[in-house]
Amino acid sequence: MTSPASPASSAEAADAGLLGPGWAGSPAASATSDTAFLRALLDAEAALTRAQAALGLAPAEAADAVTRAADPARFDVRALAERARAGGNPVIGLVADLTRDVGEEYGPYVHRGATSQDIMDTATMLVAVRTLDPVLADLARTEAALARLARAHRDTVMPGRTLTQHAVPTTFGLKAAGWRSLVLDARDRTARVRDALPAQLGGAAGTLAAFAAYGADDATELPAAYARELGLRAPLLPWHTLRTPVADLAGCLAFTAGALGKAAADVLVLSRTEIAELAEGSGGGSSAMPHKANPVRATLITAAARRAPQLAATLYGSLAAEDERPAGAWHAEWEPLRDLLRLVGGAARDAAELAEGLRVDADAMRAHLGLTHGLIFSERLSAELAPLIGRARARELLTELARRTYTEGRDLVELLAEQPELKDIDLGPPTDPTRCTGSAGTLIDRALERR
């Protein structure tokens, strides 16, 4: 019989990702854990004292003492979480514990002049930066793998599908190049947002008044010094109720999830048993069916893409924040933002593994071009026949023969060859798949020029 878990182990297990296989075990999991947030909160507090010391507003010894005391191992995450209920955020209890640990001489320099939201917002930006760095690394892996696929399958012909049906021939190389383009778009947006994430420092109502009261000749110098200590962008203004950084972060994360979700959705369709044009390098098993090799990576990415927009919507909703500090709008951001970071971090990891291991069955792709008995070439045939028999007649003829192709199960080219008005026309080239992919090769080459 399994013994009941201790309270401490239960708290740890609650953050392990049991119901989040998409992000469990990923770099994002550790970068967004409760311990990681605690570290970021302590880093924010220590940096504040160091920034004040750099401007002569605190003794250097105080900065050293606070930095030494700001060790996550010395703090009880669970106790801080429970105490946060009293004040609505974990900073109040953390400041009390940190002040005690720093000691009587330098304790007064802990959190001096700041407000809880300064520390929470700054810590959140630190967590975001620390999560986005591995996301960008995984996006780079994905992009490189997709570039290899696009080159290798530049001329691999396959059915193009629109509204679930075969449309005209395309190439798998163009599809992979399209996926890569979205990944690069996600990379560029993510990098821009990461580099712009600011520190937060404004004091009780965003006026920096307390820092002036503590002796700052020009308190506006302090936010820039604070940002330098943290490696974050210096804010133009305190942004307690100006939530552009969070909205931008939400937007880039939701876009990244959707961009990766597009590739995953295609993989899910093309890896169906009836199609089998693609397969994950190592599919997942089934608890009941030993033969299954499920496209698990693509499934988890798709799950992230479905959840991300709703999480981002909550963050956008928090833009409407009243006064100089909102009640509820700010607090509503914390969990959905962490969920978004985790989902995208896990999806980026899975996308890299998916792209690097994806198996392409070029023979199946080529064979499927014949499933519509030549109808997939109807657009090309219409263009070829229009100058010979007139545009209206070409459309009328192909529409009629398409109906017969469905009802009689005969090949479109065979039916065309029986038409007296076409007896002297060679229909071979218009129905050669390799000659029906338009400018796909040129488009791939152009897309691969983007770095």
- For the terminal residues, how far apart are their CA atoms? 57 Å
Q: Please state the oligomeric state of the protein chains shown.
A: single chain
Radius of gyration: 30 Å
Q: Approximately how much helix is present in the residues? A: 55-70%
Strand tally, please? Answer: 4
Give the rounded overall mean pLDDT.
Answer: 92
The ordered H/E elements are HHHHHHHEEHHHHEHHEHHHHH
Which strand order does the major sheet show?
A: 1-2
Number of helices: 18
- Low-pLDDT sequence parts: 1-13, 286-290
Query: Which structural class do the helices and strands define?
Result: mainly alpha
Strand content: under 5%
Give a nutshell description of this structure.
The chain contains 18 helices and four strands. The protein is mostly helical and 451 residues long.
Explain what the structure shows.
With 451 residues, the chain is mainly alpha-helical. The protein has helices at residues 7-14, 27-31, 34-54, 60-69, 77-87, 91-102, 116-152, 172-196, 209-213, 221-230, 244-270, 296-317, 334-357, 362-368, 378-389, 391-408, 412-417, 440-448; strands spanning 157-162, 165-171, 278-279, 359-360. It has a two-stranded antiparallel sheet. Helix 7 (116-152) packs parallel to helix 13 (334-357). The longest helix is centred in the N-terminal third of the chain and has 37 residues, at 116-152. The protein is elongated. Mean pLDDT is 92; it is low at 1-13 and 286-290.
